[in-house]
Amino acid sequence: MSRTEVYNSKYIYAMNGHSKNVNSITTDSKFCYSGSNDCSIRVWSLENGYCTSKLASHEAPVLSVAVHKGKIVSGDSHGVLKSWKISTERELNTFQSHTARISTFVIDKHQRLFSGSADHTIKLWDLNDGNLKRTYKGHSDTVSHIICNIKSNRFFSSSIDNSAISWDIETGTQIQKFSEHKDWIFSMLYDSNKKQLYTCSQDRMVKVWDPKSGKCIHTLFGHEYGVIKMILHKNFLYTASWDSRIGIYNLKKPLQMPKFLSGHSGKLRCLTRYEDHLYSGGNDGQVRIWSLKAHKCKAVYKGHVKPVTSIIVPNKYVTLSCGEEKKIFRWTSSSVLSSAKSKQSFETLALKEKNKIELHRDHSYDLGSKASEQEVKIIINGEPFRVSSKLNLLEACRKVGFDIAALCYHPALGPVGTCKCCVVDVKSENSSNYKRACACATEVWNGMDIKTDSPQVREQLMSAIADLRKKQKNRSLIMKMYGNTDNRGDLSLENYIGKGESRLGTTKFELNDKVIEDKTDSMLDLLINRFSTKFIDKTNLAIQVDHTKCIDCTRCVNVCSNLQGMNVYSTISSTVFSESLMPALNTKGKFLSDTMCISCGQCSLYCPSGAITEIDHTENLEVVMKTKKKLVIVGIAPSCRISLAEIFKLTPGSLTTGQCVHLLKLLGFNRIFDVQFTADLTIMEEGTELLHRIKDPNSILPMFTSCCPAWVNMVEKQYPNIIPHLSSCRSPQQMFGSVIKNYYAKRVNVDPKDIFCVTVMPCTAKKKELLRDQFRNPETGLKDVDLALTVREIGRMVAKRGIEFSELEEREFDNPLGFSTGSAQLFAGSGGVMEAAVRSAYWLKFGENFPALVYNAVRGLKGIKEAVLDFDGKQLRLAAVSGGKNIHKFLETWGTSAFNYDFIEIMACPGGCIGGGGQPRSNLDIVPIRIKSVYQREQKMKARSSHDNPYVKKLYQEWLKKPYGEKAMMYLHTTYAPFKFKSSLQKEKQKHGDINKGLTSKNSFLILYGSQTGTAEKAAEKIADITKSKKKKVRIMEMNEFGKPINLKKEKFVIFVTSTFWDGSFPENALQFWEDLKNLQPMSLTRLKYCTFGLGSSTYTRFNNAAKQIDDKLKELGATEILPIGLSDREDKNGYLSTLNPWLQDYEKIIRKIKKRKIWK
Description:
WD repeats: 15-54, 55-94, 95-135, 136-177, 178-219, 261-300
Helix content: 10-25%
Domain 2Fe-2S ferredoxin-type: 374-456
Family: Belongs to the NARF family.
Number of strands: 52
Oligomer: single chain
Distance between the termini: 80 Å
Organism: Anaeramoeba flamelloides
Protein name: Iron hydrogenase
């Protein structure tokens, strides 16, 4: 190549399975072996990346693993070594004599095991019988490295006591001691040709020794920080250093300064060689490949988010790396890289290797992509890094390997800055003083200097936890979380608060459950008057809210409002309202069942503390199973077979369908069926119904899908006029139950009363759907489906039974409800129902298959997808929408001529069922991986279209007769009705719709607010209450809801209330209003009278910036300020009340003077 080409690896997958960080990896010709802090060793296939077995007899973290002649040897932090036979996985010997952790060990060709420890000793063991042969004492600190297999009867050891020693193996005596280093010796290397010993140290030097005399021959200088690893190749010595560089020393000219290979942005942690390439890993999370011929970087592998500590290259096809993470990454081979002469040929060769080795990837990166965003230089704890300027400080630190705790922050929701657990110290290049800041709410800038672990930061962290404890008095803060990996190192409450407890000496609160059933009291009464008892609101029937576990993170508020657009949750700020024991989340004084909640469960997916969870039905199921009086049947939904792998910390889709079947069999189900079978049935019914509606000029179009129960809940609660447009088809779950109780029961001669029908679903709303009266037998009252379990509940059952991934073998579904097609698999993702319906509707209409089985127009994770299909000369207008907020946006034009569609698929959860509220709590980027697995599986199905399912055809022949026929309408279709709220509280289409009804600019005050977490909204409501108490009419709404600011010309008196979000930004519901306000011409609002109140925190540099900018702009526009701006500080002793109460007194005096008619002149 004429120039250096650097590529980011595109072909990468991670081997997930360990529950804690991986410390060591090694390989043989077929398998990879990993040791972890979870005290286990896992064995992985190099062919496909599957975990084949788990060895778990260690009682302490496994620090190192080695393989030697069919045996695995491992050492742990308690000083114990163990050996296993690989072929039988049987434990052979335990080597137990060290009194401290095993720091290093090696095995020589004579089956002798040398182990070094933090107890300063080296021990010699017989690998075959486990006997201790000899102990070598001479070091005064931890042994760092051992070299054996030297022709003479000796070995070398080094220590962090700055010395190295050569030993006589038989007598145990010291031969020579090498002690000229001034700091720790990290590593050694022996040149058998020249009979020279090389040592590298934290003192930045490499020394070359004569082993016989013990004299130093040469000292190699050049590095700025410690040298941690050396590689000897031909006449060159390659060194890895903490200065982020690889040194190249020409041993023919030892006095010459080295050349350097630069590219890493953090300390180097490991260095290895395979053929003519070097592989380096460091704190920047990168693995780099360097050509030993050209001395240039050939490739960059980016996937780790924490430091890379080990790299193994077992063959020309595989590169493995691990770091301070739970997963092991696998990359494309060095041979592919070296033979690629261009980006295109690199991709082609890599694809060929992919065909040889099936890759199950959990990350995907663009090949050869260059950073489009600008990078800035930052310093973290004294180390320089380059990061994207678009990252906040928390993400930047995590990206380069510095883990910072955070409770309220989630990458999908953006920063809030309420928990104060991610505090750091920052300063700029021009400043000499550090200032405290919340990392999640601080943007990075060039030259930023950050301290993440200073005594002051730790003290602030403990203070934040203490404040959290004080605020959470009488609340239970600890809940055992199952499957909560959250995202990119985000700590769960269990882990994080646990650390705080150990430092603060606090204890857990243990309270007895009290479930709310008495609905005579309001939710607020229960919160205020009965807060000394733990209680759970289960009235929703799908999800439950335990207010005692709320930690004020406001994630539920953000996900419900900003992601789903439902606005069910809000905050009750103890700084605005005096009830100090109020939890952060509430449902505006209502039980959850009486709100606009659609049971989608997204709040339970994001809640870090267990305050919001699905209602657990595993105990109900176990009771039924133990009686053994009923035939327990289970059906698994399309997306669940993809995400079940995450239970075992594996990549989505890693479990085959057959393994999923075996898993359910091990859990105790009697019959294992497939809900994909009834998904095919749904398509036959829905496709036929669509054709009927298109054909009949009097029919109602557009037709909406009805298989998502959360979407149906939304229609019945918020959009009842859409009910006639819903398909009458039941969801696949309810068709499944109907077929089981009405067809299968007769076929196997079992009374339906003796069948217990269970489904495994990605959705919490399915729990509520099965309780509908329409889905009960009108004569017996039996439910079609008795129980719906989420994937998380299955995970808890798996954990309780102790089922291991290695136990899972291939099993077949039971028939006749076990066969399905690719169309049914597509139900897992947004657009899948649409694509499947189009395939079969086309076949039902023309008697031939749809020309293109893959309909890309409706595939992918885009929130709103539109397409036009030529259908027998008619332009069929299609749309597929997922995510609550996207649904509301899509329906904005409902009822107008602009809404011009024929068939619409709606899924309430972002991405469809694959992102459902009952799915495992996994990494943020897991949904694209899940959907990719869906499409891969669909392509491999024997039949691709629902009408090709032979068992569905047989079902129609034996029972249903024909799609959309009389019997099908009885058992497979249903009806809907507007939701009737059980309390006196009425539904709210808009947050303040009832307050504003009938009011205009001519007869009322106007309060406009911008609020990110709900606190500013509460302040605005309090201002509204005072205004109404003075017999003044008032409207209240979000700033963005008001529309164009030019309409302020029509207003006479406006109160602006806004919080300052992040470090100076406007809240999302005020941002568009502000952008439009900035563009107004000066003196364009001269008739307007106004006042402004701001909420903020002096923690941030641009304190109350939003309120100040609005106030300044209004003055520029000629508006008249009738009350000085109020700027409150959350950090004051009484919080916002310190400023709000005095400001309200002045406000009350002013509006008291305003006569009803005078203000409008």
